[in-house]
Each structure stands twice: as structure tokens, then as C-alpha cells.
Design brief:
Immunoglobulin-like, six-stranded antiparallel sheet, about 0% helix, globular, disordered N terminus
Length: about 475
């Protein structure tokens, strides 16, 4: 096996919740078990990284709050009975969050978390949010956050928040493969934080065909697709606007429903998908309807497929055609990874690429960036196999805090990556000054506290290497 150490340079310091109706109480944090005015943070002597509390196997830690100018602070989160009079979704006790972040770690749960919803109140000031260790978004309000808040994870605010809106309240929901969530604000309220392990996620739907019937109604061809990583092999049930359609196998995905008539002149078709052997595991998606000439219709076909020389990535040229389709598209694969591409307007081609999977086939979904409901899914078969080479994927480092000490400027740095192809459980961390320490992969992300680089450099330098007698 070839060991490829990775290096990184880091610039110096500067409505109702749509969870399953079968959700259990231990899948929610309601704050009812805490005493009124119980405090977490500076006033209680807590330090950054301290564990505030745990709910089952979910650990909640206290982290510094970040401002627009890059500075940080560490204040308090306090439990109150009546927080804000406008926080109508709060039920009993709730949490007032002031200039501090809370990080929820779901990695110890038996099943992966696929959805999180919470009631929130934004009373002004700045907000922070980060998912799965991604860089922290510093926001005036959550309406400024991108729809894809982290690779493979989407954010939805209900009701939507407009530009310049000073106060807002509603539901904040995340959907995708969620390992950690960091969230906080300055005048910020949280309640009823619930997570869902239903293995149906990244549900997409799109109109891929439309015709006007002689009897003056429209017929639509609908394509549905989603990811599913649960043990169920019993298939899934599908309903449209509350009416049961049928039971399908996962191997039939992406599923095309042809010639669906809109006799009633509905504004949308609403599809509900449930595991056939677990009716508590359901997802819902809405497909807006319009006359054929006004809707976005997207189709795609593979023109060329190949692999890089190392066999670590496949690429495909895909022709994207349709009606009312913009040139900017979002591409995602069966692992939930996604990114934006721009279509060549002269050839209608996009080039995509992902790491190969074991079965040499990938299910790719392409969506219009301006209209996320306009999607098309297709299978791509490629001639390369996944590599067993040691990989440190998505290696990143984030400065959490910097401060002066007698030894010089010190930094608290968070380091994270996705390991693959490893032969043991440990890795070594090196800085510019040399070996730092040995860690287990299951400790990720790690925080290097009080690190003082030599000589006031313009950047920090780190290298990770699998702990191995072989220095290569």
C-alpha cells in the first residue's frame, strides 16, 4: 500500500417539524429536564470544548462564537421558561444562546442521522452555523445561508427569511448525512431539537416530460430518486397527494411515473415515500406544476466515460438538454457528494467526476441551480475500480481562536478529514516544527490547543500520516 501524506496551509488569525411521526422522545432535546436559568458557558466556568450536556449518545459541547471581522468570543447559553414573546414555537423551557456556539455530535449513534429539525428565534445580531466540520458561516440571518450548507446536506428555513429581516422565527431543518452541527447566535433561541435516522434521504423529483391533453388538461412525466442506506429490502410505498400509488423496489430507482394527469388543475403534486416495512420512515417532496411551456424540463445522457491514470476518479461528459434550464447545475452522486458545474452553452455538455465505487456504477442526479425541483437522474458505468491506496480526503484545518501567551501567539486549531484505505486505527500529526502527537481516527475532528508556531510565520503548516513503521 502506498501512503500519501497530506499537507495543508492555513492563513493565520486575523409550521411543524417534518420529522417521522414515530420519532421517540430520546431523539429530541426539549430542555424540559433542565432547571430554569441553568447556565452553560463562561458564567459557569466552562471553557471552549467543554461538554454542556448529553442526550443519549449525542454529545453537546460549547464552542467559541465567531463574528464577521474574524474575532471570537465565548459567552453563555441559558435555559429559560419564557424566552421571547414572539418565539411561538417554543414549548415550555427553551435555550437562550448569546455569543456562543453549541456543537451537536451525532457520530456515536447506532444509526446515521439523516434529518434534523429545530424551532428557532433570531432576535438580531449575527448567527453561526457549520455542518460536518465545514467552515463556519457567519450570517445576519439564516436566509443568507446556502441551500447546500455542507457537501450532501441541505438547509431549509420555514417560513423563508427575507433580506433585511431583523427578527425571524420558525423551523430550521437539515437533511443529508449529518455527523455534527454547530449553531449559535447573539440574541438567539432554540427549542425542540429533533433528529431522524430514517435512511431515506436526498430525495429529488423533476418533470421530464409534459403534454397538453385534447381535453384541456396537462399530463406530466415525473422522475423520482433518493438515496437509501438502511437494512430494509422490502421496497418502498409511494403516494401522490395522499393517494396510494403502489410499492416499488429500490432497484427501480430512479423511478419514472409517465403520463400523470392533472385533472383538478393542482398547483403541485406532493409525493410521499415510506419504507414498506417501516411506515414511520417517510419523506415528502413537492413538484410544482405549470403549463408545459413554463416549466423546467431537464434530460441528460452520457456521451463519454473514462478514468484518470491512478484509477482514483472517474469522469463523464454528459449532455444536458431541456426547456427553461439554466447553465449552472448541481451534480450529486449516490454517496451524497455534490458540487456545481457550468454547462457549455455551445455543446450543452458538462464534465463530472467522482471517486469510483465497488460496483463500477454510480447513480448521478443533475438539478437546475435556479430550480432545485428540476432534476434528472441517470446511471453511469465506468471502467475503473476504487483504489485501496491510503487517502486523507477533505483535509482541512480551522483556527478556532488565537491569543497571546508568554511563549508567543498561540492558536487553537481544529483538524478534520475523511480517512479511507487505512491499515490501522492511528495517525500521526506533524507541524512545521516536527511531530505533534498520535491520534485515533475515531477521535476526528481533533482540536490542537495552545499551538505556538516558531518565528511568527505567515501561515500554519500541518501534515497527517497513517501511523506506520513505513515512513512513506
Amino acid at each position: 500500500m502506498i501512503i500519501n501524506p497530506k499537507r495543508i496551509l492555513l492563513s493565520l488569525c486575523f409550521f411543524a417539524c417534518l420529522l417521522s411521526s414515530q420519532a421517540q422522545e430520546n431523539n429530541c432535546i426539549t430542555f424540559e429536564e433542565f432547571e430554569v436559568e441553568q447556565n452553560f458557558g463562561r458564567a459557569s466556568g466552562d471553557e471552549p470544548g467543554s461538554v454542556a450536556f448529553t442526550q443519549g449518545d449525542v454529545k453537546v459541547t460549547l464552542e467559541p462564537f465567531q463574528y464577521f471581522d474574524g474575532s471570537t468570543d465565548f459567552w453563555n447559553a441559558t435555559v429559560y421558561e419564557s424566552l421571547f414573546s414572539d418565539f411561538e414555537l417554543a414549548d415550555g423551557k427553551s435555550l437562550f444562546v448569546s455569543n456562543i456556539n453549541l456543537q451537536f455530535d451525532f457520530t456515536a449513534l447506532e444509526k446515521p442521522v439523516r434529518k434534523i429539525c429545530m424551532a428557532y428565534f433570531d432576535g438580531g445580531g449575527e448567527e453561526n452555523i457549520s455542518v460536518n466540520g465545514s467552515p463556519i458561516f457567519v450570517l445576519n440571518h439564516f436566509g443568507e445561508a446556502p441551500q447546500e450548507i455542507a457537501p450532501g446536506v441541505t438547509l431549509r428555513i420555514d417560513p423563508p427569511v427575507g433580506n433585511g429581516q431583523f427578527l425571524s422565527t420558525g423551523m430550521l431543518c437539515l437533511e443529508g448525512d449529518i455527523k455534527t452541527l454547530l449553531i449559535g447566535g447573539q440574541e438567539f433561541g432554540l427549542d425542540n431539537i429533533c433528529w431522524d435516522t430514517c435512511p431515506i434521504y436526498n430525495l429529488t423529483a423533476g418533470i421530464i416530460g409534459c403534454e397538453r391533453h385534447p381535453n384541456e388538461y396537462y399530463e406530466y412525466d415525473i422522475q423520482l430518486n433518493f438515496l437509501h442506506d438502511g437494512p430494509s429490502v422490502a421496497g418502498f410505498g409511494l403516494s401522490q397527494n395522499g393517494e396510494f400509488i403502489g410499492i416499488y423496489e429500490y432497484a427501480q430507482l430512479p423511478l419514472t411515473l409517465p403520463n400523470i394527469p392533472n385533472f383538478q388543475g393542482l398547483d403541485a403534486f406532493v409525493y410521499t415515500i415510506c419504507e414498506n416495512d417501516n411506515q414511520g420512515c417517510c419523506r415528502e417532496i413537492e413538484v410544482p406544476l405549470a403549463p408545459c411551456e413554463d416549466i423546467c424540463q431537464l434530460e441528460a445522457r452520457v456521451e463519454e466515460v473514462g478514468c484518470n491514470e491512478a484509477g482514483t476518479e472517474y469522469f463523464a461528459l454528459v449532455a444536458v438538454e431541456g426547456q427553461n434550464v439554466s447553465d449552472t447545475l448541481r451534480v450529486s452522486n449516490s454517496q451524497g457528494l455534490s458540487y456545481l458545474v457550468v454547462k457549455d452553452p455551445s455543446t450543452q455538455l458538462i464534465e463530472i467526476g467522482f471517486a469510483p465505487l465497488e460496483n463500477s456504477v454510480d447513480l448521478v442526479t443533475i438539478c437546475d441551480y435556479d430550480d432545485p425541483t428540476c432534476c434528472y437522474s441517470l446511471w453511469i458505468q465506468y471502467p475503473c475500480a476504487p483504489t485501496n491506496e491510503c487517502q486523507f480526503n477533505g483535509l482541512e484545518a480551522t483556527i478556532l481562536e488565537c491569543y497571546e501567551t508568554n511563549a508567543g501567539i498561540a492558536y487553537d486549531v481544529k483538524i478534520n478529514f475523511e480517512p479511507s484505505g487505512m491499515s490501522n486505527e492511528f495517525f500521526d500529526l506533524h507541524s512545521r516544527e516536527g511531530f505533534v502527537d498520535t491520534y485515533r481516527f475515531d477521535q476526528l475532528p481533533i482540536t490542537l490547543s495552545g499551538y505556538v508556531p516558531e518565528g511568527n510565520p505567515d501561515n500554519l503548516w500541518f501534515k497527517v500520516r497513517e501511523e506506520n513503521d513505513n515512513p512513506d
